[in-house]
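Please supply some protein, with fold tokens.
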Amino acid sequence: NELQRRNGFYTADVDDVIMGCGAGSGDHSMDIARMAALDAGWSTAAPGVTLNRFCGSGQQAVNFGAAGILAGFQDLVVGGGVESMSRPAPMHIDGFTANNNHLRDQYDMVPQGISADLIATVEGFSREDLDALAVDSQARAAEAIAEGRFDRALVPIFHDDGSLALADIEAAIKPDDAHFARTRMLALENTWGGKVLPHDYLLAFSAFAKSKGLARHLDGARLFNAAVSQAASLGTSPQTEARRIAQCFDSVSVCFSKGLGAPMGSALCGSRAFIQTAHRWRKMAGGGLRQAGFMAAAASYALDHHIERLGQDHALMQHLAAGLSGIEGLDVQAPQTNILFVDLSGKARDQSAALIAHLKQAGIDITGLYRLRFVTHLDVDKAGIERTIQAVREFFKA
């Protein structure tokens, strides 16, 4: 339904829903494309079909949808892939042969993974060549995501408050099976997309992880934004709230160079034994830094002077949200901290590239294409916010 909302179509107009699934077993069995569309409440006029081309299933589904549109006999197709490795029944899946063992002898087929590496080596491709290709692929994907190329297609699944349902987390924990890597840790980020995870949820998450014997880690890049927001609503101090949040985890990473305004640096926090092990891993990874005193001094200053001032960033973001509200085609999401998302629709979406260029010319940098992301920090003042509001309203003549 989020996919429908972002793209603005009527489900009765969908000519087909094509889903690729390489593990048609368990929760993935039967025609999951059709079942998912019906479960979402889509029109029964929208058909659905599921295909299996192993690990290329999702890509093939999109290709089939594109082929139908290019051929001119379909106008609107939803294509994609679905597979959660913890959900299918692994013993019901037999790869290429689909339980027809005689095919192994009849055809000279090889399994994926290690065999693919071996074949590549025989053909003259080194591991370094393969790694270079993988790095280039990841860089291209990261660039496309940063440009907002997938904003209307990739939909993360989480609650409106940014939390993940504990039932979904439990379903993703790998079973005690030799075919799967062991699940060892659960990690959260707070804030997530600028939203503060509710403290009751953190307590429930912590208890759940403990019950499963899993380590708990917090990506606290914006931990102090969460603490400042939480303290403002509870009438406590940001330091108190940061401590309450951190106590729900075994380890916490903290960034000094985002909202806190230090030029560089992050810290990893945990028990003495944990830090001793982490220190060894840092050495092995080449992360040792000798003359680090200047960096530590900046981080120390930020901790002493820049935590409470994060509230100014939050207030400026509220001001920006209010200033952009009411413009046709702009869906302004209510900000909780220092991050604001604005979804473009209708004619505004068609003008997204021109809007970004217009803002850049005005000295305003944003990320996204159809979903714009604004962030306030130490170097953004009220004059900058006013200039941004004026530039956007000038572009839309609002």
